[in-house]
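R.M. (postdoc): so does anyone remember the format we settled on? I'll just put the structure tokens first.
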């Protein structure tokens, strides 16, 4: 097995664990069992839990940004882009009631090592920037209004996911997002 394959398997298993149990629920010992390697091997790739958490959040942000930018590159209209955006959060819930990786980590903000906290903040900023770009395409021209609305949409979607997860019911997320659309918060 190549070193890159092992690192990727560690990252994949760690991502699922964090999305389910949060950063505090991430254990090198349990992760090693999930991947089928020794705990010391994880330390070879990620000397500290903070380095692993930072790498997870960085990858999550990069992957999500690539997906979102792809929506715009595909020439989808802005409203369809925003539907696809909210669908990602819904689909995460459908995957064993998991949460957005950065959202669940953000809930543990004070307990996160600096390198993880920094990456979680980058995820939020990336989302707000992308949403602002989409809103600008719809015709909102005031940059401050666009920025505030983008932040509100990001917070609303993350919050809807959290509420639905706490109830174990993805239809709650769908209902909340439909209400946001009906009220005009999300175009």
């Amino acid at each position: 097995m190549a070193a890159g394959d092992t690192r990727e398997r560690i990252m994949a298993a760690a991502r699922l664990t964090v999305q389910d149990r949060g950063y505090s629920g991430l254990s090198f010992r349990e992760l090693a069992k999930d991947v089928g390697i020794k705990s010391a091997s994880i330390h070879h790739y990620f000397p500290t839990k903070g380095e692993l958490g930072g790498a997870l959040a960085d990858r999550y942000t990069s992957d999500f940004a690539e997906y979102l930018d792809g929506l715009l590159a595909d020439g989808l209209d802005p409203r369809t882009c925003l539907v696809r955006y909210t669908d990602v959060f819904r689909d995460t819930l459908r995957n064993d009631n998991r949460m957005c990786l950065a959202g669940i980590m953000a809930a543990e903000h004070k307990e996160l090592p600096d390198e993880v906290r920094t990456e979680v903040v980058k995820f939020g900023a990336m989302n707000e920037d992308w949403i602002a770009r989409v809103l600008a395409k719809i015709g909102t021209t005031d940059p401050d209004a666009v920025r505030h609305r983008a932040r509100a949409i990001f917070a609303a979607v993350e919050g809807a996911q959290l509420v639905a997860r706490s109830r174990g019911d993805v239809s709650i997320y769908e209902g909340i997002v439909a209400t946001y659309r009906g009220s005009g918060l999300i175009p």
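R.M.: ...and that's the designed sequence above, right after the tokens. Also worth knowing: Residues 49-73 form the longest helix (25 residues). The two ends are 47 Å apart (CA to CA).
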